[in-house]
Design goal:
Distance between the termini: 44 Å
CATH architecture: 3-Layer(aba) Sandwich
Helix content: 40-55%
Radius of gyration: 18 Å
Strand content: 5-15%
CATH superfamily: NAD(P)-binding Rossmann-like Domain
Order of helices and strands: EHEHEHEHEHEHHEHH
Oligomer: single chain
Largest sheet: 7 strands, parallel
Number of strands: 7
Number of domains: 1
Number of helices: 9
Amino acid sequence: MSLLLERGKTALITGGSSGIGFALADELVRRGVNVILVARRIELLKEAKSKLEELTDTKDSVSIKIVSADISSIHSVRIAEEDIGRNFSNIDLLINSAGVVKPALLEDLTDEDINNQIQINLLGMINVTRQFLKHLPEGGAVINISSALGLFGMAGYTAYSASKFGIIGFSDALRRELKSRKISVHVVCPSDVDTPQFKQEHEDMPGWMKTESRPKAVSPVVVAKKILRGAKRGKFYILPSGMVKLLVIFLRFFPRLARLILDGMFPRP
């Protein structure tokens, strides 16, 4: 089933204050869709709302709501759901875009580094989806942002890859659960995207991980358009990068060759 976005529909976006989440919010507001942005930092949410209001001439007809919440805490998510439920009866599109990354060898990651990536990237997505499912009507959709590193692993991203692989499994199971309710589920596996988090990730990564062979990060605006196009076409896997699409084909039909290619592409300590 494909996603049908019309003026007056409502989308909830976690991680909506920046990066892919904000780019999706921008694209949706331009199409006349009401957006609810959920993130931890209220100051970034206020900035995002202001930018969205500046970019559209439809302030009177499009609602832009911001909610501060820690999605890794089910208590915080429940409070956010109560707040949102008072203003919106339906959530036509749920986009789980919130995520964090800490690049480092497994033995160099702290307990907090590991817990943050699993709890925010995976458990946070589960918390939000479970709490808001009752607000999704027939014809609604869930879009979960995973990563290319949810399809194959890369040294320095053990905890991150674990969380992103988990998102794909969660999304596939959820797709089957919601099929009878005619709610579509889509999972997005982008490569590097030019976001504030990616810039911070590059600064934080150890020297051996920095390589010129790594593909150039793409614009979140381009990724957002491809995500919505893929969801509209009813695709479960949405792969914005042509290189990732090619690697997935190789992994399926020529797995040994694909792993040799990946071993040559990715840096190792």
